[in-house]
Amino acid sequence: MARFASALLYLFAAALGRLPWPVLYRLGDGLAWLWRRLDARESHVARVNLEVAYPEMLPGEREQWHHAILRTTARQFLETMRFWTRPHADNLKLITRSHGTGLFDAALASDKGLIVAAPHYGNWELLNQWLASRTPISVLYRPPEAKVGEAFLRRVRGDSAEQVTQVRADGPAAVRQLLRLLKGGGVTGILPDQQPKVGDGEYAPFFGMTALTMTLLGRLAARTGATVLFAYCERIGAGPEYELRIEAAPPQIADPDPMVATTALNAAVERIARRDPAQYQWTYKRWRWRPAGSGEPNPYERTAP
Predict the structure, then answer these.
(1) Measured between alpha carbons, how far is residue 59 from residues 38, 56, 209, 277, 300 in Å?
(2) Which of 145, 165, 163 is nearest to 154 (CA)?
(3) Which helix (H) or strand (E) covers residue 14, if one does?
(4) For residue 249, which of 232, 216, 227, 277 has the smallest C-alpha distance?
(5) How would DSSP label each residue in 46-63?
(6) What is the pLDDT along the chain (305 residues), one digit of tens a residue?
(7) What whole-number distance in Å separates Cα of residue 73 and Cα of residue 121?
(8) How many whole angstroms separate alpha carbon 89 and alpha carbon 93?
(9) DSSP-based three-state secondary structure for 6
(10) Interhelix angle for 21-38 vs 59-85, to 10°?
(11) Going by C-beta distance under 8 Å and a sequence separation of 6 or more, which residues neighbour residue 23?
């Protein structure tokens, strides 16, 4: 049943992906308007995140950013439908500029193992396709709760011709698999700003407020000596055009002290997110979990009128 439903989802995504870019973007703008009109989850979370991350911002300016974030988020959702269902070679032609690819090539040639930290910035699905076009890669992911969603993701992301291996973030088994991979000189991709389960991370500063942050990336780097690079596909201009950027990670990310490592990790993600806040995924509940005993409330809980 899940396979059949995922096939229907794929057909729907493929139909969206065949629309002309201007039509696709108009649909995205309409979706963003609907989120704001209904004060949907995306609109509410983005508004709260802006209040947390930019408390100094004037209300009018914050409202402009809120509109821009929802517009970009909705467009990216539809862009991704297209990227998932169109030939990867055609998608990659939309990357018209690149910086830092020499760092990537050097890391591959070193055979030390490579961890690609890909924040929720720009279009990370297009980045995945670029990485997979250059080398076999194992991508760590958190499976959706619904079996249909997982079947769909495995279909659209797991192109065997490009040797993409999807690794479920299922605790010790996933860690052991990634350790073997990196010690053997392999490549893994990790979303460094994805919130871990409570007990599996460290509370470290992020935009001035502590956020539960994964320790996995730092532990993998420390135990294997693998190179860590940050990578993202940033939108440029008004149309479907992207700039690939690859940057060296600060060495503190591999520090044995988890607080040092997670603080460095969050600082690097924050620096990237500040390049163009509209391209960061502010519809994600990054500060949902608060330190035990702190008395801090979940900032996303809606107050009764």
Answers:
(1) 20, 9, 20, 16, 18
(2) 165
(3) helix 2-17
(4) 227
(5) HHHHHHHH-TTS-HHHHH
(6) 777 888 898 999 999 999 999 999 999 999 999 999 999 999 999 999 999 999 999 999 999 999 999 999 999 999 999 999 999 999 999 999 999 999 999 999 999 999 999 999 999 999 999 999 999 999 988 877 778 887 888 788 765 455 888 888 877 888 999 999 999 999 999 999 999 987 789 999 999 999 999 999 999 999 999 999 999 999 998 889 999 999 999 999 999 999 999 999 999 999 999 999 999 999 999 999 999 999 999 999 987 55
(7) 10
(8) 7
(9) helix
(10) 130
(11) none
Residue 123 is encoded by which pair of tokens?
A: 């279009």
H/E stretch holding 168 reads strand 164-168
108: exposed, middle or buried (C-beta count within 10 Å: 0-12, 13-18, 19+)? middle
Helix (H) or strand (E) holding 206: strand 201-206
- CA angle, corner 257, sides to 254 and 263, nearest 5? 70
Q: Which two tokens stand for residue 115?
A: 């961890």
Pick left, alpha or beta for residue 39 (phi over 0 → left; psi -120 to 50 → alpha; otherwise beta). Answer: left
List Cα–Cα distances, 171 to 128, 157, 199, in angstroms. Answer: 23, 21, 11
| Residues found in the chain | 305
Six-digit token pair at 59? 């209300």
**Coil/strand/helix, residue 148:** helix
- Domain residues of the chain, as ranges? 1-86, 88-280
Distances (CA, A) of 256 to 19, 53, 128, 172, 269: 49, 28, 28, 19, 19
Tokens of 221: 């780097």
Would you say 182 and 224 are in contact if contact means Cβ atoms under 8 Å apart? Answer: yes
At which residue do the structure tokens 């893994």 appear?
188
In this structure, is the dihedral angle defined by the CA atoms of residues 243, 248, 254 and 255, taken in order, positive or negative? negative
178, two tokens: 């990634």
